[in-house]
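Many introductory courses stop at the sequence. We go one step further.
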Amino acid sequence: MEIVVNLVVAVLILGMTYALASEGLWGAALMFFNVLFGGLIAFNFYEALAKLLADNVPFLSGFADTFCLLSLFILSTFLLRLATETLAPAMVRFPTPLYHLGRWFFALACSTLTVAILLLAFDTAPIHKKIFGVIDYKTEVPFGLGIEREWLAFFQYSTGQVFVTHAPGTRDPFDQYGDAKVFDPRAEWLLLHEEARPYGTESILEDAAGGGEAAPPPAPGAAPGAQGANENPRDPKVVGAAVGGGVVLPQ
């Protein structure tokens, strides 16, 4: 079953790559940056918006994270696409070798990024702990590449190093980013969202902590990385670690 999921993800990426490459280097490059900034916007604001939605529309609370993440991603990407097409409607000419190399590179990068964000949206959904019966926090799809982990690592890095906001007195537990308000400083996002999914009996955090008491799952819209931010980072309940801007999870 895992090989089937890997193949489906790979085929989806390749199919989107072929479609995007037809837009040429200029179109594929613009679309890549539209998706990149759309993803950054979505991950920056979906938690706050989901909490607001869950507090005011209780019957949607179970789907608040997924709905807000996908809505923000689709809307922001659409608006960015509209803006770039309006500001730069003409095709830019490039040397032929650069044109073909560039269009396939940006098309593949854009497709991979899009699929990674869609997979992470499934992680926030109220479904089985193993998505499609296969994908859990240890699974790296497709074929060991772990594209969703790479996005989480990049977004963590962007909040700590690039688009930095500071919150004095709330330092990250590993002192990697100083007093920056960093996303998921303990690299627990995948773990906490798998634990929060309602179907399935596995206790992910309890197993990862060596049989200790499992941490409570995050509420809709709650920042997964902010839970227990002032606890001792060497506590056995801390089951992830942020190293060098990347995400390191227990195997």
